[in-house]
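Here is an idea for our session: we take a single protein and study its fold together. To get us started, please write out a protein record for me. Start from the sequence, derive the backbone structure tokens from it, and show both lines together. Go ahead whenever you are ready, and we will take it from there:
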Amino acid sequence: MFCKTCGASLPDGAKFCTACGAPVIPEAPVLTPDPAPTKAEPILDMPEPTAPMYTPVAPEEPAYASPVYASADALVPSNVSDSVFNWGLAGLICSLFISILGIIFSAIAMGKAKRCLNDYGFLPQQAKTGRTLGIIGLVIGIVSTVLGILLAFVLIGAMAYSTRILY
């Protein structure tokens, strides 16, 4: 080891220079890295795996398929929507000729439409048409019944008035 100030040779472990008296700063030890292990020598004593630990399995079916939408009308049985339509049509036709019967048939059509709406949550197009025919038949039946009753009162009044004049 040598003195950094004067360059004199110093004994190992000296704290001051014997020639100039300067304090001796010990040199940091130079570390040499360990040689890297070669592939031939194992780092650990673990056996090499012979097979992979996880083998992914391919799915047989796709995870997502696009949904198939059916017509909403197809969810309601055809006999239900046919029944609403038939009763509504019968109510409309009967209200033109026999108003009381037309009112009854129209009320049945509207009741069946309401039951279909409660059971399935919507009305198919044919049932909507039947309900509309039932409403029209109900209105025509009520109007024709009221007009018939008024006509009957007018006729009875006219007959009573005419019989009073003649006698």
About this structure: Helices lie at 78-97, 99-120, 125-166. The chain has three helices and no strands.
